Amino acid sequence: MTVGVFAERPALAEHALALATALGLTPITDPTASDCSHWLYLTPDRLELREGGPNAPGPVYVDFARGRAAHRRRYGGGRNQPLARAVGSKTDRAISVVDATAGLGRDAFVLACLGCTVWMVERSPILAALLRDGLRRAALDPEIGPVVSERLHLVEADSRVFLAGLPDLQRPKVVYLDPMYPHRRKSARVKKEMRSLRELVGDDEDATELLAVALAHAKRRVVVKRPRLAPVLAGPSPGFQILSPNTRFDIYLTGSA
């Protein structure tokens, strides 16, 4: 996978060059004449990840104010939804959470809206750039700006290193994991957006190691999100599970803090 950086308008060229330099990517002036398979596409409104080719999916970007994130915030079920029960926010509204596989930040945003303070840890520099852009725009929104600014924090790092480096007083009550689930069957239908993310970050082959680190540093529990029929991660068995139609949350209790 090769990624270039393209500015949709000349006025954005300087910004695009700075972004390309920071990420160690190649700035391009014409995506159609480029050898890149993907582009970070800078528009006047947002930063997008786009894939080339005739069957390419639509752009991938972070938007906390509209679309799926807004729908989940308004109609997701509040503290009764499985995610809220999994992290324990139904009974405790002051939970500190490390989302150790932040991705596009959707679950982290839901947790922040429920009152949790969330550190989104993402090791992919490109995904971190998309998250940073989404946070910047969300902070300007009059409805969700205060929530995003006060409760959502982005850390670009390997979660194993980040968690291991936290002093005891800064250890989170909950560590949340949503590792990329490897699709073994060639016939498996993958959402177009997920296809782009999978090509960008690959499968999380170190998920078992991340679970072990999380268990050693979460004060209260570790929550692992899995497809409903997927096997549990290798290691200790979860204490209990919370099921939804297509998803399962495996909960590992680590203490009572």
Largest sheet: 7 strands, mixed
- Give the H and E element order: EHEEEHHEHEHHEHEHHEEE
Strand order of the largest sheet: 7-6-5-8-9-11-10
Averaging pLDDT over every residue, what do you get?
Answer: 88
Residue share in helices? 25-40%
Number of strands: 11
Global Rg: 19 Å
Shape verdict: globular
- Percent in strands: 15-25%
Count the DSSP helices: 9
Helix and strand content put the structural class at: alpha/beta
How is the topology of this model organized?
Layout: E1 3-7, H1 13-23, E2 26-28, E3 38-42, E4 47-51, H2 67-75, H3 82-87, E5 96-99, H4 106-113, E6 117-122, H5 125-139, H6 145-151, E7 152-156, H7 159-164, E8 174-177, H8 192-201, H9 207-217, E9 221-227, E10 240-243, E11 247-253
Parallel strand pairs: 1-2, 1-3, 5-6, 5-8, 6-7, 8-9
Antiparallel strand pairs: 3-4, 9-11, 10-11
Report on this structure.
The chain is an alpha/beta fold. It is built from 9 helices and 11 strands. The strands form 2 sheets. Strands 7-6-5-8-9-11-10 form a 7-stranded mixed β-sheet, with helices on both faces.
Overview features:
257 residues, 11 strands, four-stranded mixed beta sheet, 9 helices
